[in-house]
Amino acid sequence: MMKKIVFLGCGSMGEAILSGMLAAGVSPQSVVVTVRRPERANELASRHGVTALASNEEAGANAQAVVGAGVVILGVKPVGIMELCREVASSLESEAVVISVAAAVSLEQLEGALPAGQPVVRSMPNTPLKVGRGVVALSAGSSVDEHHLAAAHEVFDGSGVVLDIPEDQQNAVSAISGSGPAYAFYLAEAMAAAAENFGLAPEIAQILARETVAGAGIMLAEPGANATLLRRAVTSPNGTTEQAIASFDRDNLPGIVLTGAQAAAGRAAQITEELGRN
């Protein structure tokens, strides 16, 4: 890992990435985090042993933090990311790798707000990073070489699977893996509601749905696992599961999922356009 790693903003996703890095062996002494509230800064410093600055207390904390950094992770919401880039631009090392975790903010927009030639990587992580089962898609900017990309990989390697993709596939990734955990939780909600409809107590319904979805996820995470083969193994000919799957097919569940993913990807593209007008 490069010399100093800085998190500008560290919400739940940023903390998941931070936890994965530290678990993979990165020294907390090499990490600096900036957040707005001093209470949050104290919490992060106490929990992880990192240096944490509160921008509400220390003017220029963000610019101060990035001095001498090898990797800078932009962890604020999309609406604030361009202003943050301009705030720290003059303090960045020319070879510092800037990694954005903000959905829908393009490489062109990021590079336009940073010094010419700054290595920039756009990422799309998802929330299972919190439990070391995340998936992260990286897209390299125009000034990124193999060493810069390797540094970006190191940031996420401790938290899940890291993939390299062209930037024009980022919205698709956002619609599938970025938003995808919510789809799985939504399925668990629907299963629990169905269980209650059968007359099961709410607490029993919740356990059945939660543990079933979580257990199936663990099976999918096994090396070489294939969702289609796993489904077929549970679906005996003329059995109960076959009847449920047939009902899902009649209602075009795959089409419903596709339509939802298209809506998510469309909204990501719309956000990119909106940010470009600001």
UniProtKB/TrEMBL annotation:
Keyword list, A-Z: Amino-acid biosynthesis, Cytoplasm, NADP, Oxidoreductase, Proline biosynthesis
Pyrroline-5-carboxylate reductase dimerisation domain mapped to chain residues: 167-270
SUPFAM superfamilies for this protein: 6-phosphogluconate dehydrogenase C-terminal domain-like, NAD(P)-binding Rossmann-fold domains
Pathway(s) served: Amino-acid biosynthesis; L-proline biosynthesis; L-proline from L-glutamate 5-semialdehyde: step 1/1
Compartments it resides in: Cytoplasm
Record family assignment: Belongs to the pyrroline-5-carboxylate reductase family.
Protein name, per record: Pyrroline-5-carboxylate reductase
Organism of this sequence: Arthrobacter psychrolactophilus
